[in-house]
Amino acid sequence: MSHTLYQRLVASHTVSRIDDQHVQLYVDLHIMNEYTSPQAFAGLREKGLRVRRPHQQMGIVDHVIPTRAVPVAARTIDIVDAAKQAANFTHNCTEQGIHLFDVNDPVQGIEHVVAPELGLIRPGMVVLCGDSHTTTYGALGALGFGIGTSEVEHVLATQTLVYRVARDMRITVDGLLQPGTTSKDLVLHIIAQIGAQGARGFAVEYTGSAIAALSAEARMTLCNMTVEAGARAALIVPDRTTLDYVRAKVRDLDTATLDAACAAWSELRSDTDAHFDAEHRFDASAIAPYVTWGTSPDQAVPVDGRIPDSASGAGLDAATMRKALDYIALSAGAPIEGTPIDRVFIGSCTNARIEDLRAAADVVRGRKVAASVRAMVVPGSGLVRDQAEREGVAQVLIDAGFEWRQPGCSMCLAMNDDVLKPGERCASTTNRNFEGRQGRGSQTHLMSPAMAAAAAIAGRIVDVRKEFHHV
Predict the structure, then answer these.
(1) Rg of the chain's alpha carbons, rounded to an integer?
(2) pTM beyond cutoff 0.85
């Protein structure tokens, strides 16, 4: 019988079958942050239970941590409730013997950046986290997905999860992305085409020549944002790019063991005649840089396009479009290019890796941030920050007028000090543009790091392909 990669990963981790739709799934690695774990630990305590396998847990403070440019050892959380949350998390991890990347850890950063770069994510694993963007790990051939607080408690207690099996979707992307376009543009295009619920209930497998050409970090961006189409998981079959990345990051295996593991990982793939419940095809060569115009990631258009109106069809009803446009303060039929911006944010678990920061630096080298714009770069981890400084990437961004900050989730969501003011319009490399996501009354336009950097220089949304020819 033929199987998809997703089906193989589920089968290899099934402890028992509960019914036709549910299995008890074994979890290789469980990642926690300070935001979604407190109630889970409290639940364990009430039941008199301890964490079953502490060495298969990882804790990291990332959502509430400030990113002010102070030395790591001097980092403090000044928001009282956030500080209590982080302190409680530290206590819980220490009590249960769980390794924690705390506020003052030099490796600290965003969970979905830190885990892969430390070699903790490997093909064939099942990785869970109380965060929806755990789909990121599918870029390395691991089954990753977000879980709720009650499920966090269950995983801590049993190292398993009661799991409803998803359907299979294959998205084939052939052709090559053109200069100035990135995997961020690709995923925004896909979400805009299939809709915010277009992959609901599905595990998505990406394939095709365009996917094969992407770097491991670009694949992480793609898989990270696939959840914005409603997907329950995203996967890319491990290939040479995957294995090279993992080999460079894994630190706890000797050469012979790693060679054997790579040989096994190379066998992880869908059968050629495997059945997928849904299929989509896209041509990467036809995709332009994308920008969101509304309050959902699927409300996006090419930068040289126009904001749709109800008559042009955008898969939205007129009331939904009106509500989005009223909030974002733009007009149907207007070009998105040329829209003035107040802030630029380059960061988040979607686009804060070294590759992303290099792309931004390539755009701004020798230029200056517009006087009307406040621009900041928040690296995804301490390791990314250090590498950017060693390579000179950080200095290019600083010389251009960007704030160079410490790692954290930062302005991706309004849970820390980095918050937009009401009415501020931001060009952002994050993953969500919901109402109030970056601050009450704030207006967010999602785009790639190169596009955000170009907007910072121009003071408005521009087409990086036209304005910055060397990119």
Answers:
(1) 21
(2) yes
